[in-house]
Amino acid sequence: MANDRELSIAHIYSKAMLDLAEEQGAADSLLEELQGLVEYLGLNPDLERFLASPLVDDKDRGAVLEKSFRGKTSDLLLDSLQVVNRKGRLSLLRAIVEGYRAEHRKLRGMVEAHVRTAVPLSDALRARVRESVARHVGRQPILLEKVDPALIGGIVIEVGDEKIDGSVFHKLRELGKALELRASQEIVRSRTDVSQQ
């Protein structure tokens, strides 16, 4: 897991890659390639460890990058990887890809919306949720759906730091708090009535 300083450095690389890719009209295709690269490294952990190792010389890593990816990926991706390699930052590759994805979404006016429901969303409800979130935040949402049976029913939507909780569980919890408050107020009121007699 990258620390704050490393995330800042990764952000610089991802922003530079996105700016260059956007100039070339390749921002979307580079995102697909970067995501594919992360998947490929997930299936080849030895290669990922090799590329991230501070014990490996950058020339050796560069040669492996050339052999592994030249002709199989765009020159833009490989050349970007070579720059990151020469700067000794390939260990931040996953953070760079995540930063690129976030910057790409921002550039395209999109935002991630985490949606939890007790049962899977129907297509019609998914469309209504997407439309409501878009209207609320002013950007096109990418729905990241999760089924959580503990919610009993309803929906919880999180966009950034904002949380909209319309779940039955939340409503029951709020009802319980309201009943507790009312009961304690009744007890105080009855004690006051008794003491005044």
Model description:
The chain is of the alpha+beta class. The chain folds into 2 domains: 4-106, Peroxidase, domain 1 (Orthogonal Bundle), CATH 1.10.520.20; 109-167, no CATH class. The protein is 64% helix and 13% strand. It contains 8 helices and 4 strands; from the N terminus they run H-H-H-H-H-H-E-H-E-E-E-H. It has helices at residues 4-23, 27-43, 45-52, 58-69, 75-86, 93-107, 123-137, 168-195; strands spanning 110-117, 140-147, 155-159, 162-165. Strands 2-1-3-4 form a 4-stranded mixed β-sheet, sandwiched between helices. A hairpin with a 2-residue loop joins strand 3 (155-159) and strand 4. It is elongated and about 90 Å long. The model has no long low-confidence stretch (mean pLDDT 88).
Strand order of the largest sheet: 2-1-3-4
Radius of gyration: 25 Å
Distance between the termini: 67 Å
Number of strands: 4
Strand content: 5-15%
Write down the domain tally: 2
What are the salient characteristics of this protein?
197 residues, alpha+beta, Peroxidase, domain 1, 2 domains, four-stranded mixed sheet, 8 helices, elongated
What would a concise description of this structure say?
The chain has 197 residues and is α+β, with helices and mostly antiparallel strands. It has helices at residues 4-23, 27-43, 45-52, 58-69, 75-86, 93-107, 123-137, 168-195; strands spanning 110-117, 140-147, 155-159, 162-165. α7 links the parallel β1 (110-117) and β2.
